[in-house]
Design goal:
Length: 182
């Protein structure tokens, strides 16, 4: 899937149009869940991503695969939108469209995205503590947490909200200690 400046420039109008349709039909949150599911599907299946990116594959074949993979799982409005992306030759920007739509939805719902990196999967109480801390720091009404596992941080967590980074990892503490000693 294409990303970067050009991808964002192309994806933005599509995401805004989808948000407009979703608002008109009172489906914004439902379509937001669809966009999250589609992003996860693309991350988990490199074959699907390569298939959708391939310009040699006929649009009808791409539509058939998308219907087979997602039709029973997503709202018909989302499915129609996917067909539109295929027709317009923009399906290769699907990940970026999903990302941008979810960003618009978070703005609309006064929700912030906290990207949390830890050495192990977070427990429910740890997620709740992080959510509470992020709400206090940002004043947001809701917090959406995306987790990532990275054993290289040794211990602790790294929390990124927008451009703010709270590095409470052992690796970060060791790095700061080394800087102070030198």
């Amino acid at each position: 899937m294409r990303s970067g400046a050009m991808g964002a420039q192309i994806a933005d109008p599509y995401a805004k149009a989808l948000m407009s349709i979703a608002d008109d039909r009172d489906l914004a949150d439902r379509i937001g869940r669809d966009m999250a599911d589609l992003q996860q599907l693309l991350q988990e299946s490199e074959d699907l991503e390569a298939f959708l990116d391939n310009p040699i594959i006929a649009p009808d074949d791409k539509k058939a695969v998308l219907r087979r993979v997602a039709e029973s799982e997503i709202d018909p409005t989302t499915l129609n939108f996917l067909m539109l992306l295929v027709d317009r030759g923009r399906i290769l920007f699907l990940d970026e469209v999903c990302r941008r739509y979810r960003s618009l939805l978070r703005e609309r719902n006064q929700t912030v995205l906290a990207e949390v990196t830890s050495t192990v999967e977070l427990t429910g109480s740890q997620r709740d503590a992080i959510e509470s801390k992020v709400k206090d720091l940002t004043g947001a009404r809701e917090v959406e947490i995306e987790t990532q596992i990275d054993p290289d941080i040794i211990g602790g967590v790294i929390i990124k909200v927008g451009s703010q980074v709270l590095d409470a990892s052992l690796r970060g503490q060791l790095r700061r200690l080394a800087v102070n000693l030198s």
